[in-house]
Amino acid sequence: MPSPLSQLPAVHVLADAAGDGSPRWALVEAARRLIAERRAALLAGTATDAAIEGTAVARLAAELARPALRRVINATGVVLHTNLGRAPLAAAARAAIDEIAGGYSNLEYDLVKGERGSRHDHLRALLRELTGAEDAIVVNNNAAATVLGLAALATDQEIIVSRGELIEIGGSFRLPEILRLSRGILVEVGTTNKTHPRDYTAAITGKTGLLLKVHRSNFAIVGFTSEVAPEELVALGKQKGIATMIDLGSGALVDRPTQRAWGLPDEPTVAETVASGADLVTFSGDKLLGGPQAGIAVGTKAAIERARTHPLMRAFRPDKLTLAALHATLALYKERRLAEIPTLAMLGKTGEELRAAAGRLAAAIGDVPGLVVALAQVTSAVGGGAMPTSELQSWAVALSGPGADAMDRHLRERGIVGRIADARMLLDVRTLRAEDEAVIVDAVRGMRPG
After folding, report:
1. To which H or E segment does residue 398 belong?
2. I need a labelling partner for 19 at 20 to 30 A (CA). Which of 46, 158, 160, 393 fits?
């Protein structure tokens, strides 16, 4: 009898049998892997048949050809989910990216003068108008904006900051380490829960280069607390001839009345922080602002110019697609078209709207054998290190039946990310788009108990 090994198909024959649904390289690689697996199984005695189905090759080839970065459906209820890419972009921002990405642009060319221009000029006027600042620059994220600001204003000088503001952001990125990277000398004042103006005053020396205040955007200190307001810190800085910098983190452009109308705790806005007189204010583009990943620094002409001309700017400068998307997003703020910014639209959804959306999704799913589909009142989160104490009342479709872990795995394999609570799979509708419904319905109806 001939050995089963001799019956293994050739790579090109197996790849041809799989069809042309995937790129040729993926079909060939899939065929090689499956042949190697079957050969190993035959040698180990765990298989006796050398035949391999072309459909198996097609499935594996499709997996290999799928981009590592893919679109997913956020059913967690966390609006600014860092692991899922934070703020989804507005239609205007996506259109702006497409317009600029498809050809050349005047990124660093002055069309009026016919000479080299600066990428830092494109958003300056719009940011000045929206924030009230004298000048502005954009970099690739807020950590970069913070590093650049510290380096530009206080290299080899002492930087005074409250102990209650020595934050750590995602990825174990800590403020003291940022200061060291910026070649600043950290001087801690006050205590974890209380810092007074006198603490800053007592710490000022001839080597002090900067008074730094950091908004605690990803945690809260409550109870017996006290901190120095931006206006107080700026006044002290002006009195002593020392620059001041405020890192806002999230960077809300939405005014306080709108925040309260959405049931959110008051978040300091960029405009009111700039109005405090700080030399430099930094914040993110992809958090509460609802735009692309970016770091934005606004402030006095002198401070911004020092940051703009610092050697680190070359490493931190934004690309053309970031500038295009951010400009389009900021234009929506200028035109008061806030409902078109997905982040703001999600945060602004009412309880009635959310309950109705959950009801529609549950009805579309209908009856599934072995599965209990119900509505559940849940709590959403802003996320992204923003408004840590906020609790947004929301509604979800709750799935019970074949085991929460199994349902979670089934949905994730189809690009749907929800959350498990009380042994149920929850699909929070706050973060769902209209086009997500059909995908979710198809995935849930494909579940089987067991």
Report:
1. strand 392-400
2. 46
Closest CA to 264 of 167, 388, 358, 352: 388
Q: Which domain holds residue 385?
A: 73-82+345-445
Which CATH number is 280's domain given?
Answer: 3.40.640.10
Measured CA to CA, the distance from residue 408 to residue 59 in angstroms comes to 22
- Report yes or no on whether pTM surpasses 0.85: yes
DSSP-derived pairing of the beta strands 208-214 and 392-400:
unpaired
**Comparing 1 with 208, which gets the higher pLDDT?**
208
- Between the alpha carbon of residue 167 and those of residues 103, 170, 178, 381, 419, the distances in Å are 41, 10, 11, 20, 27
Are 72 and 415 within 8 A, CB to CB?
A: yes
Both structure tokens of 302: 């002198």
For the segment 88-103, the average pLDDT, to the nearest whole number, is 97
pLDDT of residue 432: 97
The secondary structure element, H or E, covering residue 176 is helix 175-181
- Are 323 and 118 within 8 A, CB to CB? no
Q: How far is CA 418 from CA 37, 97, 213, 411, 431, in A?
A: 34, 29, 36, 8, 10
Residue with tokens 């104490």: 389
- Give mean pLDDT, residues 47-54: 90
Q: Is residue 151 part of a domain?
A: yes
Examine residue 450 and state whether it is found in any structural domain, yes or no: no
